[in-house]
Amino acid sequence: MTVNAETLLLLESQAIELPSWAFGNSGTRFKVFGTPGTPRTPQEKIADAAQVHKYTALSPSVALHIPWDKVDDYDELGRFAEDHGVKLGTVNSNTFQDDAYKFGSLTHLDPAVRQKAIDHHFECIDVMDATGSRDLKVWLADGTNYPGQGDIRGRQDRLAESLAKIYARVGAEQRLVLEYKFFEPAFYHTDVPDWGTSYAQVSALGDRAMVCLDTGHHAPGTNIEFIVAQLLRLGKLGSFDFNSRFYADDDLIVGAADPFQLFRILYEVIRGGGFGPDSTVAFMLDQCHNVEEKIPGQIRSVLNVQEMTARALMVDTDALAAAQANEDVLGANGILMDAFYADVRPDLAAWRESRGLAGDPMAAYAASGYQETISADRVGGQQASWGA
Amino acid sequence: MTVNAETLLLLESQAIELPSWAFGNSGTRFKVFGTPGTPRTPQEKIADAAQVHKYTALSPSVALHIPWDKVDDYDELGRFAEDHGVKLGTVNSNTFQDDAYKFGSLTHLDPAVRQKAIDHHFECIDVMDATGSRDLKVWLADGTNYPGQGDIRGRQDRLAESLAKIYARVGAEQRLVLEYKFFEPAFYHTDVPDWGTSYAQVSALGDRAMVCLDTGHHAPGTNIEFIVAQLLRLGKLGSFDFNSRFYADDDLIVGAADPFQLFRILYEVIRGGGFGPDSTVAFMLDQCHNVEEKIPGQIRSVLNVQEMTARALMVDTDALAAAQANEDVLGANGILMDAFYADVRPDLAAWRESRGLAGDPMAAYAASGYQETISADRVGGQQASWGA
Amino acid sequence: MTVNAETLLLLESQAIELPSWAFGNSGTRFKVFGTPGTPRTPQEKIADAAQVHKYTALSPSVALHIPWDKVDDYDELGRFAEDHGVKLGTVNSNTFQDDAYKFGSLTHLDPAVRQKAIDHHFECIDVMDATGSRDLKVWLADGTNYPGQGDIRGRQDRLAESLAKIYARVGAEQRLVLEYKFFEPAFYHTDVPDWGTSYAQVSALGDRAMVCLDTGHHAPGTNIEFIVAQLLRLGKLGSFDFNSRFYADDDLIVGAADPFQLFRILYEVIRGGGFGPDSTVAFMLDQCHNVEEKIPGQIRSVLNVQEMTARALMVDTDALAAAQANEDVLGANGILMDAFYADVRPDLAAWRESRGLAGDPMAAYAASGYQETISADRVGGQQASWGA
Amino acid sequence: MTVNAETLLLLESQAIELPSWAFGNSGTRFKVFGTPGTPRTPQEKIADAAQVHKYTALSPSVALHIPWDKVDDYDELGRFAEDHGVKLGTVNSNTFQDDAYKFGSLTHLDPAVRQKAIDHHFECIDVMDATGSRDLKVWLADGTNYPGQGDIRGRQDRLAESLAKIYARVGAEQRLVLEYKFFEPAFYHTDVPDWGTSYAQVSALGDRAMVCLDTGHHAPGTNIEFIVAQLLRLGKLGSFDFNSRFYADDDLIVGAADPFQLFRILYEVIRGGGFGPDSTVAFMLDQCHNVEEKIPGQIRSVLNVQEMTARALMVDTDALAAAQANEDVLGANGILMDAFYADVRPDLAAWRESRGLAGDPMAAYAASGYQETISADRVGGQQASWGA
């Protein structure tokens, strides 16, 4: 099975946004290990992200996290990015590291805290206006640790009110994308724990409010590709946060834990019209590299998505439909597996070379000396880490 | 802490519908153990269900499963029930034991099979018209076992079409209630796997389409009381199927596996207006008794719900709101736990006696000799079991 | 990456035992769907199993389940098998379908029931003596559904006593292999729920008592390859029951749900010395085919194991060890993934043809007409199903 | 049901060790919220722990974590503790916050790192010699994040070697207790992930090596009381780390998430001889208070254990055994539930007062002004937090 020209053409349009925080140090509650060369500024993060795009042509934009990536001049930051060959993308509104939000942000019982959180989102929209970003991504750490600690129902109502105020400020060409997460950092209840909640909340807002699906944010055993198919059907799949996990929200490299699951997800994306130039679904990474190198980790990740998209595009959909119509369970499954087991890597390497890229982006980056340079140069200052 | 008069008054209106199939034999794929006295007809199931109501005054109605409980004359069946002190309730449309549905019913690729399943629901509505039942409960076994076996997205679209046809037939005083289930009997994908799917489907139908929440049908770790709160908020909680589970859909006695979870669920029911004379939320059992006695199993179950409802009604909501407003995590949790740890059983027994019931319904039933009578009488014929 | 000669040589010795029950009808507690051509006798099951071996040269033996496969003359059954090109293998002692075992078999509180179960195992050993089988496989449905129903500790002690009596009868060239399972059919506690319990029990018996690892019998998220590595290290991995699952013990085709997990398992098998002519670890399938065709389902299964074993054998272990020593996380992971993503199927098809087999066993079987023949011939009689 | 004198006598001997780190700040990878009055030194932690004992008489000792609680003079620390009415207890050997252990400690491929970790345990034993502690508790963060990153089998062998060296240094009156954990901080494989691994490792060491069971360290759905019963049966249950969880290792207050599970665990502890003056099983808390007050959080926790122990002691074991023998499933379960639902709190409060303690320790502590004092006094310096 070879990757044909039609597939390659479709792959050409693929773009996977990188998260700025992936280039900083990260870890668990037990320990954040530091590494030489870790960025200290938003600019250094963007410069690193640009390396990923340089070797893969897959990641033309970088998502910002506010306040982590706050700068005085976003025009300047935008030009910096463009000078490095990338653009600024989605703006994430972090409301989980301020002491005021210990008991909630948009859901908080205290109107003053809610307003503070709403104002923070207004500020994010200002940033979007300055950067030309399309998407405001809202992920909330809001929740409680003990039964009784909060009023689950009241919090949901307040969430709806807060989101409505934010949505009213979102521009005509902009979108609000609401991410859900099963648990963590809250351990008893989370205010947006599942796709149903995100869907109900954004449906109440309007057409430019969408759901963000993070592949690591589900209960054990959840069939994620089903949710993909459902959200596409409902017209509410706004974006993906890709990563992988064995247990909880492990934030490992996308495709690392269960490659076949990634394949099934991408197959449903394509099946449902979520891939290609006409789709508005945003593909993003949202993962971190606690023990492995960060830039190569991101390169590996976008390649994983590209390779698996190629496999998903190679499914013989006519034959599959025929086998399904014949109730030929093994035949239908076999057609899907044929594409999954196809080794697309040599074809993609050749194609990459035909476009003036290195056949092996991992090796090319390693040989470039960039890692050594930043390790030597970035000495002193405060490393951008989780809390930066 | 004593159960006060206001709580007792509220408890008086509580009604928990019993499922006819709970009185038949049931089991796992490995073995169905038979027991003496097991009903052989719908009438015998109703007679058994009436025993539960006789000793508890908690279960005035019995849910039917069609085709299991098909009879020629539903008027007669209704009179039989009333003669025994109970009414006929929800009608369940079983579409999982006909060979035609091996690859789906309302979602099937073949229009003829879909129509057969739709017609079966029409028949169920006819039964409802005859019995005066309010709710048509739809639980589907539809799904696939292998990736590729079916077209997840197409099946969802077909489900919407089929449900719309059924809903068009539902009477002005009737409701369609769509149940979701995480998995089983399908092992790769289920067509209505979560509350979000059920909610999206019934929202597209109209006001008289609601969600049924079965407490055993969720992924591990799911916060069920959150879903209760959310569905009540959205005005879409139609009914409960109560049972409990340690692992999958174990269908154990409600409250047996995690009493505190049942308490939290009932607290959110009350908090969200789902309890009391003004609520339209139906309380039902949906569980089976594989190794324990069936009638006492049902008595134990309705008592569990009653006792836990009493505890949930005893939460000092003013004090709780104050503790929440003060961000007093331990105080708020403590107020909830105070109600949970209250031993309401003596007060409820006394109240029961004051209403002319036995204080200990389990003991009263055991002493009644009913079990011995049916064991002796119900000899010969085909026991009503899972496949009856 | 091509499958080299050394790998092919190792693959030549691979043997995967088939379970006789896989050829009978099976299903869930909701429904067992029947299919034309389903075997009605142990002989017909063996004939079907022989078809799998005929097209794959991978499954030279068939496991028996007693009492399902009881016959009057095991010599004759053995000759029948050999005439069809296969042998009789492991004997499974089913103790889950007799009414006496409703509350336990080897763990039962009643000494008479325990003795009955022990005697059944003695009978199984007699069968083994007659068939020349090496392994007595013990899987118990024993457990309880409700807290308090049984005495967990006492049951464990009785289990130890019962197993000791059985082990004393096991021949010098025979083994007792104890399988564990997380849950089902028991829903609160299971008497052998995890590898630790099986290990503790068989360690107390002696050298010829081993653990059986069924790949579908673990809690969500369990790292199965770790258990493989640990049991091989402890010298107690007796055999594998292969299958796959998304949720519970789904008993799907091995490799169908998570191919990468199967790869990792097989890699640890090889790493730990569990593969090859010197290993005593038995490879078996233990799965069923509820909606798909049974013989092709088994063919697909053994091919999945073979293909994944080929990939696992292709891991560049020297390079992997070097990358691990260099703490090169991405490099080490990449080396493993290189083998996983290798498409070994063309090479294996060519090799198969070089050995006089069909390159595509699935197609060859489909073309053979066997399925049509048995569908026409096997009419009347009682289909061998789960309860057969 | 009242708490009888015999039960109260047994409760008198109950002791639950407190972890020093519970009094410091803690949190998730997203944020550690600081609170006024948080200890800055081991002494301040001990002083806080002593408050818990003062109001409950339940926590006469404090566990140390090395290096967090390193001091120059352990005699002095011991005297400080005794002056505050408590003793120094178990010593925990933290090997997860040193950069050297990024890729493992006792399992590391590099002998130099392993020796460093072994030496750290030797240092811990020196501390034990100085403090008179009985138990060296070993919990390892060792594991890997990606398949291939490490050699699972080799790491297990190295773990055995390292533990053997440490065990050889453990004194005749001391014990090595090995804790297991399902996952976190490692996300692909953990070197001691389950009780089976801990059991196999400590069994190889000798009689003074035991297993530590942390109630939050299991896969979803795991029956923890079964493991309790099994480890007691095998004579290898060394100690408990109590806490509770809804999802992963949430480290919530013991009994907060699933009180009935705590009851079942304590019932099996008592059933298996793990409670009372003759038992060597250590009861400890191992939890943290991210959003709630810390000292009251610990008071609530030890009370939860005490109250649930009282309930477990109240089970009518004779009646239970009779019901089990009669295969009376509902009766046996009912006997267990009778004890669980008993409200022991009034009796325990009265008993507490009869011993000169406050009936309501939570209220007494709140009224004491201690919290206000430490909040005012402990200003400046470095708060003892997770990384302290």
Automatic annotation (TrEMBL), chains A, B, C, D:
Keywords: Carbohydrate metabolism, Isomerase, Manganese, Metal-binding
Keyword ATP-binding applies: no
An individual GO BP term: rhamnose catabolic process
Gene Ontology molecular function: any one: metal ion binding
Enzyme class: isomerase
Span of domain Xylose isomerase-like TIM barrel: 72-227
InterPro entries given in the database record: L-rhamnose_isomerase (IPR050337), Rhamnose_iso-rel (IPR013457), Xyl_isomerase-like_sf (IPR036237), Xyl_isomerase-like_TIM-brl (IPR013022)
Known EC number: 5.3.1.14
PANTHER family membership: L-RHAMNOSE ISOMERASE
Protein name: L-rhamnose isomerase
Organism: Cryobacterium lactosi
